[in-house]
Each structure stands twice: as structure tokens, then as C-alpha cells.
Amino acid sequence: VNQWATFFIEQSIQSGDRVAILLDNEDHHYFILLALDRINATYVPFDTDIPKEQLLHDIEALKPQKFIIED
């Protein structure tokens, strides 16, 4: 958790930021959630299995400041 929190701080994620998570590998979600909580950022989950149009609509509606995307 500390390593993720440090990584987020290095990526300029700050307290109050809304961070969108787009990961296929759910193994890291729990640790990411705890790390974002530690730095007082907000976790914004997105389902990568929904149609692209819906995903774009959700992103526009929630307006996250940062994204974590799996390559």
C-alpha cells in the first residue's frame, strides 16, 4: 500500500483528486483503493467490459482528474 501511495504522489495525484481505475487485473484493486484512501484521493471505478460509448459517457459525467490504465 505504501508503494502504491508513493507512486500516486509521484504521479501528482493529490488529496481530493478523483482517480479513474481501468484495470483488467483485479488483483491490484484492493491495494490501489487503500493507497488512494491513504492520500485522501477518491477511487472512481470503471467497468472495462461495458460498451465504449457508455464508458465515454461515464467518464464525461464523473470527470476524473487522473487515470490509472493497464497496458
Describe this structure in words.
With 71 residues, the protein is α/β, with parallel strands linked by helices. It is 42% helix and 18% strand. It contains three helices and three strands. The chain has helices spanning 2-10, 29-38, 52-62; strands spanning 18-22, 42-45, 66-69. A three-stranded parallel beta sheet has the order 2-1-3, covered by helices on one side. The radius of gyration is 12 Å and the shape is globular. The mean pLDDT is 89.
Q: What would the keywords be for this entry?
A:
71 residues; 3-stranded parallel beta sheet; 42% helix; 3 helices; alpha/beta; single chain
Q: In sequence order, what are the helices and strands, one letter per element?
A: HEHEHE
Q: Helix coverage percent of residues?
A: 40-55%
Shape: globular
- What gyration radius follows from the Cα positions, in whole Å? 12 Å
* Overall mean confidence score, pLDDT: 89
Largest sheet: 3 strands, parallel
How far apart are the termini?
21 Å
- Order of neighbouring strands in the sheet with most strands: 2-1-3
The tally of strands reads 3
With helices defined by DSSP (H or I, 4 residues minimum), what is the helix count?
A: 3
| Proportion of strand residues | 15-25%
Low-confidence stretches: none
| Assembly state | single chain
User: Helix- and strand-based class?
Assistant: alpha/beta
SSE blueprint and pairings:
Layout: H1 2-10, E1 18-22, H2 29-38, E2 42-45, H3 52-62, E3 66-69
Parallel strand pairs: 1-2, 1-3
